[in-house]
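Long-time lurker, finally posting.

We've been working with Ubiquinone biosynthesis O-methyltransferase (Solimonas marina) and I want a structural starting point before designing mutants. I don't trust myself to interpret raw outputs, so I'm hoping someone here can both generate the structure tokens and explain anything notable. Sequence follows.
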Amino acid sequence: MTHPASEGANVDAREIANFGRLASRWWDVNGEMATLHQINPPRVRYVEQCAGGLGGKRALDVGCGGGLLSEALTAKGAEVTGIDMAPELIEVAKLHALESGLQPDYRQIAVETLAAEQAGHYDVVCCMEMLEHVPDPASVIAACATLVRPGGTVIFSTINRNPKAFMLAIVGAEYLTGLVERGTHEYEKFIRPSELHAWARRAGLEPIGLRGLRYNPVLKSARLSDDISVNYFMHCRRPA
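Top reply, 14 upvotes:
Generated this for you. Predicted structure of Ubiquinone biosynthesis O-methyltransferase:
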């Protein structure tokens, strides 16, 4: 399996700069990343369910940002590596880990490069809210497939591409309510489940199931759902 994107090639510099600018406020539960904090508990529950528990397992968080998911998976007993291409986010993740006492291993490295170093190393690979921010999502998916061990678990989350998702994820979240900073998403980069399914199969993964993530802006909470029309997860397995 080949990964054509070299170090830094599969990166949108504007996206990296945008998220890097938010680094100092990543862990502010009332700041610009508040929604990410609110959706993290159901994300963790879903990963734990798909993996059949996390205790003692080696987990990779691709596009870890400031370490929100990485620390939560560590708290569940996993040995976690978090990777991201924004140096400011990796620095914030490391600093917060020192404060929390939960210390995942953070690296500023492209997933394709890590795949060349650690093929088959991880029991669980997570790639959350990242695929819609890179030029070549299929390359990321292929790298994730290489990094997981045979029989291991891979979980992606992204945003569906349809009129409802446009209205809720961009018009509603970015322009009407301000839940997400304007310009965070580009509709053309949203990914239909059929597209994600095809890329996963091409990478040698076996898609297992889909779940939606429903966010309530009034209660400021999120839960897993059968509705995959906007935010959704795909659970995959690498055949043994």
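Before you design anything, note these points.
Confidence is low (pLDDT under 50) at residues 1-8.
The helical segments are 13-21, 34-51, 68-75, 87-100, 111-117, 137-147, 163-176, 193-202.
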